Amino acid sequence: MKAVLTPAISLMNRLKYPQKFMLVGLLLVLPLAVVLYQFLVQINKDIDFNSKEILGAEYNAPLVEVLQSVQIHRGLSSAILNGDTTYGSELSAIQSQISTQISAVDEVDRRLGTTLLTTQEWSGIKQTWDTLKREVLTLTPQDSFERHTALLSDILNLITVSGNNSNLILDPDLDTYYLMDNVITKLPQASEYLGQMRAIGLQALSKGELTSEDSTRLVILSGLVRTTVATTIQGFDYAYGWNPEMRTQFEGQVDAYVKTVNDFLAYVNDKLIMPGTSILQLSDYYTVATGAVDSAFTLYDASSSRLTELIQVRVDNWLTRRSLVIIFTIVALGLAAYLLVGFYQSVRRVLLALEQASQRMVGGQTAELVLENRDELAQIAISFNHIAQEIVSARDRALEANKAKSVFLANMSHELRTPLNAVIGYSELIEEECEEIGQTGFVPDLKKIQSSARHLLQLINGILDLSKIEAGKMDLHLEDVGVKLMVNDVISIINPLLEKNGNRLIVEGTEPDIKMHTDLTKLRQVLFNLLSNASKFTSNGQITLAVERTANDQVCFRITDTGIGIKPEHMNKLFREFSQADSSTTRKYGGTGLGLAITKRFCEMLGGSIAVESEYGKGSIFIVYLPLVTAKPDAPAGSATATREAGSETRLQPVNGKVNGKLSGNGNGRGKSLGTVLVIDDDATVHDLMQRFLSKEGYHVESASNAEDGLIKARELHPDVITLDVMMPGTDGWTVLTQLKADAQLAKIPVVMMTMLGDQSLGYSLGAADFLTKPIEREQLVGVLRKFRNGGSATALVVEDDEKTRLMLARMVEKEGWIVTEADNGRTALERMRFYNPDIILLDLMMPEMNGFQFLNELRRNPRWRSIPVVVITAIDLSNEDREQLSQQVQQIVQKGAYSRDQLLSEVRELVSARAPIKN
Fold first, then answer.
1. Beta bridge partners of 505
2. FRET partner for 573 with CA separation of 20 to 30 A, picked from 4, 547, 716, 889?
3. Which residues contact 106 (CB under 8 A, 6 or more apart)?
4. For residue 188, with 0-12 CB atoms within 10 Å meaning exposed, 13-18 middle and 19 or more buried, which class applies?
5. Which range among 16-25, 363-372, 822-831 has the greatest average pLDDT?
6. Nearest-angstrom CA–CA distance, 238 and 171
7. 3-class DSSP string for 52-110
């Protein structure tokens, strides 16, 4: 049994549920449709058959009337032609009646003649009649009788043709069949026999004698009439047997017909045929004969009407049966479709419930599946619930593992970079000391140590970048970028690599300059990675960087080199992590195998793509497509992006039409300024408010409505305090802050950040003045120290838990002429500062007992320490929130609309007072 069902199971497994239901439904409906079609075809055939019978009866009805009138016309013509002119008016009347009846047959023949194939015969009858009517009174009595009889024979033949072609002759039911036989043959034929007897009798009476020939003909016709009447009676008896209801209708009429005909036959025999009988009156004979003929037509009319009724009832029954079959089929199919759709919807709801439960499970919600089904699908729900419980448990374990992985990566970055910091730092110190004492023989080895350490650092950074991308923690910092300027920056960095291998770089397509809104750092990294790869794998060749804007608002960067190219079998693993073309390439050219993988991830983060074309031995082409405007990522609450978004919705309107410009005052009439405050804000209302209540307190207020003007005025005025709006068009406050602190002349000016966002994640800034990332570059550290040195002797506090790194930093700083004090954690540093206020603090973030963040909190709570610049030294990757929290020497952050006049004045006074001792 299983083997028999295997093909069906295999087929069903390949189909989706809609396809399954359609297939099963089709297999059920198709045979039913075929049977129904055949059944309906047969019913329609029966309907058409019986409907055609009705057409025959309809055609014969006026034709029989013509038959009856022509018979009368024959008798009257015989009488007139034999000398009795008293029937002249009746002959004219009957001719007119025949013309009217012929018109009626013409109408029926126009409608039914083509179907019943009667038109040709009917045309011949009309022509015969027209000739006979025109010539009737010029004929001899015998010619008239024969021509009338021939015409009547044609009419009787046409009645038979009509009955045959309309299926009347083939009537399937016996009751109507015998009734039809009487209508089509027996009664018309009997009427014709009686009509001939009437004509012969009228002719004899007109002549005044009955010839032996006439007598013989009357005797023969009498026998034919009796035979016909007998068969007619027999036909009715058969019809009664199949349809007893007909006896009630026809029995009396048949008896009257038989009696009238028998009386006429007896009358002819007794009064006309028997020798020695007296000659009858012509009119009396005509009346009796016509009565017999009329009785035949009377029975014909009744039989024909009943025949039509019976056939119509039969047609109606077939129509009803057809309607019932169609209705039943439609209802059955509708019910089947309804149940089939219901079944499908039931299955679909189960599948939808499964999908929703799965989504809830993925989203960390309760994933229990509850179904109303009592069928096999309910078992699926039970099994799913068991699986869901296991998956939820496994997910929880995975989340714990992922959390542990994240902690591990953070700690690993710190633990790996810390010894690397010592390796690089001490090797640089030793190299410098060796050069000073003339021991240059050690310098190449020391440079190799530094190169290996930096290579290891590059590998660590690549691994951490990949981990951050995979965890969705790599942030985008979108800004407006001039492509030409960015390309020039990349070229200046890549030039040493180009010169090392003797390569020539050609840049195409940066004019006119293209503007992009993207992450500048990641875009530069993409181009740097691709250009450095091209430089590494090309010797004494040409590298081309082509930039063009495409029609679909993208920028295409195409890097073409004439290097070693890539083998076709290695193309599919080109962008895999830790993978290069082959092991020989790695041995010869080096590299971590992470550059292209990270490049591809960066392109995708920026909403673009990267592709490669290469011919081994001839070079490669890397093609990068990036959108002109990178889609804005969702910003976490408290980030600078979120701050800008919130601020943009609550801007105040300008007051008194003032937008920007110089707002100054000399206080409350005291004539002496207490200090200068520079207000950098794009909102004119802020300028107006700051001017009003700061000038009354004796402060001189300067304003700038954008970042560029603010930086210019800061360099010109050297204000005591700067208030800086976070959200400004073009360049935001955090960028301005970075530029302020990068300028040695402006670095110590206290900055109050003004934000529209009351998010406690920013809170009070922790006051970092700069960032240094481990391993520490000596030149970078020297630059920071020079920026914060104020002439004369300077003191520095190095807070670092790693002894080697702390000693290395101390030696680096001391070599620059600083007096250094050391602390192994934040708590020790605070104890040192009770007796000692350094000019700068070098602070590690990851420390035991009290880390860097906690130390900064404590530092900013003490008014004496708030103005001390802090340089953060960290081996961990800082998030956006961390960088905002530690951004450049921010003395305070206040919320617009949430501070009072006294609070702001107190803050400004305190900052100006703290600033006064160090201001030139």
1. 543
2. 547
3. 122, 126
4. buried
5. 822-831
6. 14
7. HHHHHHHHHHHHHHHHHHHHHHHHHHHHHHCCCHHHHHHHHHHHHHHHHHHHHHHHHHH
Percentage helix, strand, coil, to 5, in the chain?
Answer: 65, 10, 25
Spatial separation of the C-alpha atoms in residues 180 and 193, rounded to whole Å: 19
686 close to 754: Cβ distance less than 8 angstroms: yes
User: How far is residue 717's CA from residue 920's CA, in Å, rounded to a whole number?
Assistant: 12
Report which residue type is found at 727. Answer: M
Beta pairing partners, 478: 519
Distance of CA 556 to the CA centre of its chain: 30
Percent of the chain beyond pLDDT 70?
74
Cβ 192 vs Cβ 89: under 8 Å: no
**What's the confidence (pLDDT) of residue 636?**
43
List Cα–Cα distances, 858 to 260, 472, 759, 771, in angstroms.
141, 33, 21, 19
Instruction: Identify whether the C-beta of residue 662 lies closer than 8 Å to the C-beta of residue 702.
Output: yes
Higher pLDDT, residue 295 or 764: 295
Q: From residue 74, how far is each of 142, 280, 283, 910 by CA, in Å?
A: 11, 20, 15, 146
Q: Rounded to whole angstroms, how far apart are CA atoms 776 and 802?
A: 14
| Global model pTM greater than 0.85 | no
Angle, helices 88-116 vs 17-81, to 10°: value is 160
Distance CA 41, CA 691 (A): 99
Q: What is the pLDDT of residue 666?
A: 39
- DSSP bridge pairs for 755: 895
Q: Tell me, what DSSP letter sits at residue 445?
A: H
More confident call, 691 vs 646: 691
Q: Which amino acid is at 916?
A: A
The residue to which tokens 């006979």 are assigned = 132
Q: How far is CA 511 from CA 214, 405, 482, 487, 805, in A?
A: 130, 47, 11, 12, 48
CA nearest to 869, candidates 805, 915, 809: 915
Token match 């016509």: residue? Answer: 290
- For residue 752, which phi and psi values (nearest 5 degrees)? -105, 115
**What is the average per-residue pLDDT within 847-857?**
81
699 near 674, Cβ under 8 Å? yes
For residue 653, give the DSSP letter: P
**Contact indicator for 821, 796 with CB cutoff of 8 Å:** yes
Three-state secondary structure call for residue 631: coil
CA separation (Å) from 305 to 156, 157, 183, 259, 614? 19, 21, 10, 22, 97
CA distance 40 to 55: 22
Reported in sequence order, the residue ranges of 705-784 that DSSP labels E, i.e. its strands, are: 721-725, 751-755, 768-773
Pairing type for strands 515-519 and 478-482 reads antiparallel
Say how far apart CA 299 and CA 102 lie, in whole Å. Answer: 22
| Kind plus residue range of the DSSP H or E element containing 31 | helix 17-81
pLDDT on residue 910:
56
**Which tens digit of pLDDT belongs to each residue from 684-717?**
766 766 776 567 567 788 999 888 888 899 988 8
447: left (phi over 0), alpha (psi -120 to 50) or beta: alpha
Encode pLDDT of 286-323 as tens digits.
Answer: 899 999 999 999 998 888 888 888 888 888 888 898 88
**pLDDT band at residue 601, thresholds of 50, 70 and 90?**
confident
pLDDT winner (highest mean) among 182-191, 638-647, 687-696: 182-191
Neighbours of 631 (CB within 10 A): 10
